[in-house]
Amino acid sequence: MRNEEVAWIFHELAELLEFKEEEFFKIRAYKNAARILAELEEPLEEIRLRGNLTKIPGIGKNIAAKINEILTTGRLQKLEDLSKEIPPGLLDIVSLPGIGPKRAAQFRDSLGITSLGELAKAARAGRLRDLPGMGRKTERDIIRCIEMLEDRGGRVLLATAKILVEELKSYLKALPGVSGVEAGGSVRRWRDTVGDIDLVVAAADPEPVMDALSAYPRASEVLTKSGNRLSLQTKWGITVDLEVVPEEQFTLALFLNTGSHAHLNKLENILTDKGVNIKTAISRSGAMFHDEREIYSLLDLPYIPPEMREDQGEVEAAAQNKLPHLLEVEDIRGDLHIHTTWSDGLSTIEQAVKRARDKGYSYMALTDHSQSLRIARGLSLDKLKEQHREIRALNEKFDGFTVLTGIEVDILPRGGLDCPEEILKGVDLVIASVHSAFKQDCETMTARIISAVDDKNVDIIGHLTGRLINHREAYALDLEKVLDASARCGTILEINASPERLDLNDANARRAKEKGVKMAVNTDAHDLKRMDEMSYGVAVARRAWLGPDDIVNTMPIGKLRKYLRKR
Questions:
Q1: How far apart are CA 459 and CA 427, in angstroms?
Q2: What is the pLDDT of residues 323-376, one digit of tens each?
Q3: Which band of pLDDT confidence, cut at 50, 70 and 90, is reported for residue 534?
Q4: d(Cα 206, Cα 229) in Å, to the nearest integer?
Q5: What is the DSSP letter of 531?
Q6: Which domains does the chain have, with CATH numbers?
Q7: SS (H, E, C) 89-133
Q8: Which of 123, 130, 166, 437 has the highest CB neighbour count under 10 A?
Q9: Cα separation of 90 and 104, whole Å?
Q10: Strand partners, 366
């Protein structure tokens, strides 16, 4: 039995013990054992033959005995006994991307859920959202993960693919002889959805790596295997394509696997016009590339970031040395769209502020829902005033950090806003969004949104097209008219960083930039975890060729306040 197979048995044992809420030290011991065994270069069988299992650093007599049992019998009785205590359906829930033992136990204890079918039914009925630490967005994530397992194909959210990528990378990095693992393809280019996962591994011998991935417990079927390449289907329904190369070829292989095909073809066509073949030019150089900048330099081009490699003019811009300076996560100074327990959020104001400060922000805006959105516990006017008084009192305690009063106000079906003007005048930041009547015709919806764009009290239009990726199409909208109105009025448009929205998308954000419209990258966070999704919105901005000057929440607070007052 291979080392990584033994390691995975200990990993599963730790998960089941965590599900049963056993002592922390036991869980930690088995997790550490899994990590140690996966990183061993010498086969466990050989170590056992010498009687040296207990001499492995970090492995005591108890775990050594279990290793011996696994190597002798091919199984571990303790794991099998635990598995019998837990319904198989619960084990399926534990294995869902982003769920894990604690959340599965919560579903069982709170709602009696013991299978994927019961979980799907509860999620679709809206019964999960009120559990501690949950919410509507997490509920939708669970539905999508289950649908992904049921469909066994199609494109999945980038965020879901990244969970799987991180697990695969952790598994492969622990293998002896592996010096690098990275994902290319749509994941590295930060596409909003992913059809398959492209992995590049640096290792001298491809065979052990391919064998290990083939034996990976989440793998369901090897599709093809040839030379240094392997393609397999996972139990999550996503195909994984693996290429294993020597360390000196890793950068080049990652470059080629990142694509896109259109980008690589454009590079090849430009060089062909000069009488040069891209692969020949690279191979003849005999270079060991330390990073991709060296590859582009060889092609007489400046470095083109992965997010831009879509043949959307980036190669021509690079050839003319006209590539933009792209937005970075570090440029963001604050999040301007956050919900709290005052409406449908899961964190208190204090918790949200702490997370924002921990992230290095210098400001944030609390934008709970307005009164008409009852499903989201929208604030009455009295509650809104009370919240804003609390925020102003809180600001007096802070040094170097500002909480902006705000509201996400509904754009009503017939136009206009769900909040009196006298209230909006006193709010630091107003986001106006559509949350109802999504099936209106194009003319009606366009006029409805432009009514908010024209309102002098509205600062930002939230998630403009209303799409939910793989769930709800964008509503009918004359985008050009809305962009023209936004440019005329100086109204900011949002790039909503929630992985299920990414709205504006990259194409619409780039069009907005061309018209001179300023944008804000916001998380629309309803819990603390969602505040960490800013990178997805920044990636959209980068794919749209946006720089820090295009984004208002890169401004320091004084400049931002002045900008909002001016517009």
A1: 10
A2: 999 999 999 999 999 999 999 888 999 999 999 999 999 999 999 998 776 665
A3: very high
A4: 8
A5: G
A6: 3-151 (1.10.150.110), 154-247 (3.30.460.10), 259-323 (3.30.210.10), 329-566 (3.20.20.140)
A7: HHHHHHCCCCCHHHHHHHHHHHHCCCCHHHHHHHHHCCCCCCCCC
A8: 123
A9: 7
A10: 338, 405
| Alpha carbon distance 158, 165 (integer Å) | 10
Element (H, E) at 61: helix 61-73
Average pLDDT, the chain: 90
Nearest Cα residue to 493 out of 516, 467, 464? 464
The pLDDT assigned to 271 comes to 73
Q: Is 369 helix (H, G, I), strand (E, B) or coil?
A: strand
pLDDT in tens, 29-82: 998 898 888 888 888 989 998 999 999 998 999 999 999 999 999 889 998 888
Work out the pLDDT band at 88, boundaries 50, 70, 90: confident
Residue 284 has pLDDT above 70, yes or no: no
193-220 pLDDT, tens digit each: 999 999 999 999 999 999 999 988 788 8
Give CA–CA dist 384/426, Å, rounded.
Answer: 11
Task: Tell me if 455 sits within 8 A of 419, measured CB to CB.
Answer: no
Please give the Cα distance from 90 to 106 (Å, whole number). 11
CB proximity list for 402: less than 8 A, separation 6 or greater: 362, 363, 364, 395, 557
CA distance 213 to 228: 13
Residues 6+ apart with CB under 8 A from 433: 408, 409, 410, 411, 461, 462, 463
pTM: 0.83
Predicted confidence at residue 15, as pLDDT, reads: 83
**Cα diameter, the chain:** 82
User: What φ, ψ does residue 240 adopt, rounded to 5°?
Assistant: -115, 125
- What single-letter amino acid sits at 156? V
